[in-house]
Design goal:
By secondary structure, the chain is mostly helical. The protein is built from ten helices and no strands. The longest helix is centred in the first third of the chain and has 23 residues. The relative contact order is 0.13.
Length: 210
């Protein structure tokens, strides 16, 4: 389906490289972590509430299984809590937490011997839609979401992961490099290739231009 005249290009909108919005207040987060280190369990519960659902979706994208994703999230929070003394306040807490969860997910993938062959689960298309008549705009939005999910699933694993962290988790390039333990140049290269493939894939489906 082509983009209506005068409407923003959905490909450009989805693949924009602008600076992501700022995350939580670093000073407030540092104070919260200090309370955790002082033994205040409620403070850590606040961190779990703040990041739990977001981390779950990231794990679900990697694992493709809701139960495995839930287990990985729980284990990641436990490991983060027990290893909090190793946390570097110079980076966002979620970046560090994500790296822990990612390693747990990759270990599960290796055990299942399904490296690179896992389905991409999209929260944008997974929710049940209300039973009402769709307008043209709503139908096109759903079609674009489905096309994005399919095109993302077609990317190589390493490119898909970088794309997800940049455009959905809103990680900076530095945070992606830190979370994945790869050089900055590798991050930029993977993202560039992913964007080119996404544009071509979406254009082939009638969204935007190649």
């Amino acid at each position: 389906m082509s983009t209506p005249a005068g409407a923003p290009d959905p490909v450009s909108r989805e693949l924009a490289q602008g600076t992501p919005p700022a995350g939580s207040d670093p000073a407030a987060e540092a104070a919260l972590l200090a309370r955790v280190l002082a033994g205040e369990s409620r403070a850590y519960a606040t961190l779990v509430d703040r990041y739990g659902r977001r981390l779950y979706w990231s794990c679900l994208r990697l694992l493709g299984d809701p139960d495995d994703a839930e287990d990985a999230v729980q284990e990641a929070f436990v490991r983060a809590y027990t290893g909090l003394s190793r946390y570097d306040p110079a980076q966002r807490f979620y970046t560090w937490l994500f790296a822990i969860a990612r390693n747990l997910c990759l270990n599960r993938i290796r055990r299942r011997k399904l490296w690179g062959l896992l389905p991409l689960v999209s929260p944008a298309t997974g929710a049940e839609l209300p039973a009402r008549e769709d307008t043209g705009a709503r139908v096109e939005t759903r079609e674009l979401a489905a096309a994005l999910s399919d095109c993302l699933a077609a990317l190589p694993f390493d490119q898909r992961e970088c794309f997800h962290l940049r455009h959905e988790e809103e990680f900076s390039y530095e945070e992606i490099a830190s979370a994945l333990s790869i050089p900055m140049g590798t991050v930029m290269s993977r993202l560039s290739r992913a964007r080119e493939k996404m544009r071509a894939c979406l254009a082939a489906r009638g969204f935007g231009r190649a």
